[in-house]
Amino acid sequence: MKPFVLTLALAAAAIAADQATLERGQKEESRACIACHSLRLIHSQRLSRATWNKELDKMVGWGTKMTDRDALLEYLVANYGDDKPTPPPAMSKP
Amino acid sequence: MSPNRRELFAALLAVGAIRAARAADDPVAIPGKRPMILHNDRPEDLETPVRYFDSYLTPVDAFFVRQHLPRPAAIDRGKYRLTVNGMVSKPLELTLADLEKLPQHTLPAVIECTGNGRGFYSPKVPGIQWGRGAIGNAEWTGPRIADILKAAGASESAAFLETDGADTGVAATPDFVRSLPMKKALHPATLLALKMNGQPLPDIHGAPARLIVPGWDGTSSVKWVVRLSAAAQAHNGFFMNPGYRYPKFALPPGTPARPAELEVIEGMPVKSSITSPEDQAKLPLGAVTVRGFAWAGEEAIERVDVSTDGGSTWHAAELTGAKLPFAWRLWRFDWKPAEPGYYTILSRATDTAGRVQPIVSRWNPSGYLWNAIDRVGVTLERA
């Protein structure tokens, strides 16, 4: 394999692995977080990695059972990090 | 799988993830409420859009909602019992009829969530990202806490009143219990409200009875009250410590709290908000009425000033409503801009104690007490 193609393959594998982690993180979110609140509460926030990490600690302290905590953190940072734009406000229906 | 196909597969997965997230965020209706800004639907955390703030009393169906814990099962009005115990000579189990037999008092008072405006802080802090609308002004009716405690023979050496609501936490989430210094609990304006704007309290706002602690942060006004206890010490659960505490000394933005220097929040600061025009509105060039509300916790609003040039010049706004503690006053400023373009409008309140709304609200790790001078941008276009 030519070095260029090898690099491309490795990069693609890294992206795929990352996507798999994010997928696992999302599954963890829908499994672990919904007992107490809607996911909207999470998705309306934009926080740094350190702050999301502290939030997960707080939730574990409040009895949340997490089996894939690292993937959940990666998913939160990737989708709801403080570098992401603030979402427009959601409205309830009439 | 070839690299290209792998990338394609990863992209498809990402699309799937976005779709699933959207499904979780599908809009829902909240019975008894107009369309509200939806921060959380389970439990309900609902913000009032500023366009609903056009009356002195905020209608019940437009009033914001902040639930910490899932709403308790609706309480049967006939079976409701209020336990009054602790440092009392005569512990009581009061029915709703007992509470209705006590002298009833009515007063207008603001409830503002301690974290109202949290979304304006930078750097961002965790919690509900409220804008301007976690606030409302309603008329509350019910017996005085002082009369209930008198009936129970509360000890004069009890320094705190502990209040528990019927809501309970899921898993190991702490119960929502709050303590008030007895001096505030015995204040003649502190009520156990049974009515809101003349109607029986709706379930979403704490039926059949909630605490109203005028001038203090919203978290003091416990809903679905089922127990009042006279106590020597303040409760030390999460919602008293470290929850709802504010740094005694200001912290550099983005730095962690110093637990020993956190204090319980009591009276609220002076604040005005602009409710019209809305931020980033586009309006035809012509007369514009700038409107809003202002309140000052346990003080009353003395004046509100408005600037339409980014703060170079200020003009007194016209205030309506009585100069009262606890309640808000509405204000308006009739502005006649001569030229089109983008304008930054500011509002600044001053209270009867001489407190003035600051230019910069003090950053704190929980995002409480946002009260910076309000600011909206509008574009005026030649018709």
Quickly list its features:
heterodimer, A: 94 residues, mainly alpha, Cytochrome Bc1 Complex, Chain D, domain 2, globular, B: 383 residues, mainly beta, Sulfite Oxidase, Chain A, domain 2, Immunoglobulin-like, 2 domains, 5-stranded mixed sheet, 33% strand, disordered N terminus
At the fold tier of CATH, the topology name of chain A is Cytochrome Bc1 Complex, Chain D, domain 2
Q: Which architecture of the largest domain in chain B per CATH?
A: Alpha-Beta Complex
Kindly report the name of the CATH homologous superfamily of chain A. Answer: Cytochrome c-like domain
The first-level CATH class name of chain A: Mainly Alpha
Helix share, percent of chain B: 10-25%
* Beta-strand content bin of chain A: under 5%
Largest interface: A-B, 43 and 49 residues
Please report the total strand number of chain A as a whole number: 0
Q: How many strands, which pairing sense, and closed or not: the largest β-sheet of chain B?
A: 5 strands, mixed
Give me the Rg of chain A, rounded: 16 Å
Given helix and strand content, the structural type of chain B is mainly beta
Mean of residue pLDDT values of chain B: 94
Total domains of chain A: 1
Individual helix count of chain B: 4
Our measurement of the CA-to-CA distance between the termini of chain A, rounded to an integer number of angstroms, reads 60 Å
Structural Rg of chain B: 23 Å
User: What is the domain tally of chain B?
Assistant: 2
The largest beta-sheet of chain B arranges its strands as 5-4-14-8-9
User: The CATH topology of the largest domain in chain B is what?
Assistant: Sulfite Oxidase, Chain A, domain 2
